């Protein structure tokens, strides 16, 4: 299976990936992580533009180092000031980048920005985070869970806090792989019902909303993220009372007895999770961070590598 020149010209919501393609990305990520030296020239001569409207640590470093490990290069474009579409139109921006780069990887404030870039670019556009979705994080999360549990089928993952971009993408890919994902949030912070309906209609697993943790056991994994969604400048202290019942702490861990705890970082200690838990043996957060590189590298390899640079059939056979 190859993603290149297939029905996946872009990755904007994450739903562009079929189950077979998702499984292939994860299989290749595992292979590249196990034997990185075998893939040092996979993207030789390729360049990607990494565009940032938001500050970043994991996204910026993992794409830059990841492309270097595959023999290519990543160009960092800081568009935080004055912002995309201000100095020149998004259409012209996309068309110009397409002249030089093999893909555009964009971390943006609004999903609509990605849609406009994809409309005018002649190279793939990859969503590295927007206000609605975070598919690259979800790929890394599923890779981490595959390593930890051997697969996701039958797992019960509880997501606690704010139903945000990370929640939506985790729901999609985890459910496609057979997991049951319950998002536990305040009623006004729940994932919208249309997304739940879409995921449930297109997945082997199941997703649902809840407002408390009652009756959720057994739970295999608890996942959390910041209580303030991207683009929201509300101080954490102002939302603490609203979200404190959803904090991941010792009491909740003892109640639900998960086998693992996940957090996509950055961690706000003492808010969405306590230091006692994020630093415990249950925590997979650094494994998730490491796997951003391998999940993204696999995706880029399958989208960008030329036939003479990457024998897809043989590669995937070795990854199986």
Automatic annotation (TrEMBL):
Occurrences of domain Aspartate/ornithine carbamoyltransferase carbamoyl-P binding (ranges): 10-147
Record EC number: 2.1.3.3
Pfam families associated with the record: OTCace, OTCace_N
Swiss-Prot/TrEMBL keywords: Transferase
Keyword flag Glycosyltransferase: no
Molecular functions per Gene Ontology: amino acid binding; ornithine carbamoyltransferase activity
Catalytic reaction(s) noted: carbamoyl phosphate + L-ornithine = L-citrulline + phosphate + H(+)
Domain of life: Bacteria
Top EC class for this record: transferase
GO biological processes: citrulline biosynthetic process; L-arginine biosynthetic process via ornithine
Domain Aspartate/ornithine carbamoyltransferase Asp/Orn-binding positions: 154-302
Similarity section: Belongs to the aspartate/ornithine carbamoyltransferase superfamily. OTCase family.
PANTHER family: ORNITHINE CARBAMOYLTRANSFERASE, MITOCHONDRIAL (PTHR45753), ORNITHINE TRANSCARBAMYLASE, MITOCHONDRIAL (PTHR45753:SF3)
Name used for this protein in its record: Ornithine carbamoyltransferase
Origin species: Idiomarina aquatica
